[in-house]
Amino acid sequence: MSAKPAAVIIGSDHAAFPLKEAVKKHIGQMGIEVKDVGTFSAASVDYPDYGIQVAGAVSSGEFQRGILLCGTGLGMSMVANRFPGVRAALCADIFSARMSRLHNDANILVLGGRVIGEALALELVKTFLETAFEGGRHQARLDKFDRILPV
User: Fold this and answer.
1) Residue 71 carries which DSSP code?
2) Of 100, 60, 131, 103, the residue nearest 111 (C-alpha)
3) For the domain that residue 115 is a member of, what is the CATH number?
4) In which element (H, E) is residue 9 found?
């Protein structure tokens, strides 16, 4: 089975809007369908509104993977990881993006639009979307995530 998903959902705030547009185009060029939930301009918005949409769609199983972008990536990471079954990985280097999939089966890639440049972002996206989860001993570790109960 291919590691590459058939479709991904993407969302960003205003700070990362230009980078989201470049990432969206890149994903389309990879032959992957993209659902963009916004934002659709550089006008100021609240990042949780977009994080909730993407993480909710991944958590529900509507999408296998998603991509979130905001100024630093920190806020989107915090929002997304509150959802059951979501493993959002904030990545700023290729090794982390690769390992987030290989060992952690991350299902949302988070990028900081004010932290990384476009060329690196596109490589991170490619790595994230083309890397398969290794499974095995890593699955047993991930199973422990699902046993964590809310306080």
Assistant:
1) S
2) 100
3) 3.40.1400.10
4) strand 7-12
Structural domain contains residue 2:
no
Closest by CA position to 11, among listed 28, 32, 30, 46:
46
Residue 106 neighbours by CB under 8 Å, 6+ apart: 87, 88, 89, 100, 128
Model pLDDT for residues 66-123, shown as the tens digit of each residue: 999 999 999 999 999 999 999 999 999 999 999 999 999 999 999 999 999 999 999 9
Q: Total structural domains in the chain?
A: 1
Instruction: Tokens 């699955």: give the residue.
Output: 139
What are the CA-CA distances from residue 21 to residues 13, 24, 117, 147 (Å)? 12, 5, 13, 37
Whether 35 is covered by a domain: the verdict is yes
Q: Residue 112 is encoded by which pair of tokens?
A: 């900081």
Tell me, yes or no, whether 37 lies in a domain. Answer: yes
pLDDT, tens digit, 9 for 90 and up, residues 7-18: 999 999 999 999
Cα-based angle 97, 141, 123 (whole degrees, multiple of 5): 5
Residue-range definition of the domain harbouring residue 93 = 7-146
Residue ranges of E strands in 14-136 = 33-36, 65-70, 88-90, 108-112
Active site residues: 70, 103
Q: Is residue 69 part of a domain?
A: yes
